[in-house]
Description:
The chain has helices at 14-25, 37-40, 48-53, 62-83, 126-146, 148-151, and strands at residues 87-93, 99-105, 108-115. The chain is α+β, with helices and mostly antiparallel strands. α1 packs across α4 (62-83) and α4 (62-83) crosses α5. The radius of gyration is 17 Å and the shape is globular. Residues 1-7 have low confidence and may be disordered.
Amino acid sequence: xxxxxxxxxxxxxxxxxxxxxxxxxxxxxxxxxxxxxxxxxxxxxxxxxxxxxxxxxxxxxxxxxxxxxxxxxxxxxxxxxxxxxxxxxxxxxxxxxxxxxxxxxxxxxxxxxxxxxxxxxxxxxxxxxxxxxxxxxxxxxxxxxxxxxxxxx
Length: 153
């Protein structure tokens, strides 16, 4: 008998699970109901070669914009789960794929990020997705911890 314990996969990462749950919530017809999280989140994985093959300036596809919104929405949901405070993303993009995303809790801006080349949005693999999302969640939770009174307003 093998006594080794199976290590959790990156798909068990709390942020990745939150993102998968959020993406599944948009499925009103049950298409993704029987699919694995890896299948549901497959569009978030974009190889470096594929990103490089896309033009430097291009109009972002509506599906890519939906993925960007889902990613930052999942960050907000994970922050809410960690702190008990509603965290709402605000995304503003121009037609060329440049813009800004803010994540607010109360009157506190917990994330402020400039977005460039949104038409190239994606991650090398699920580990990179988990790290990027987890980093933003940790940053936002730390900001709320520093200024809890402002986050409660």
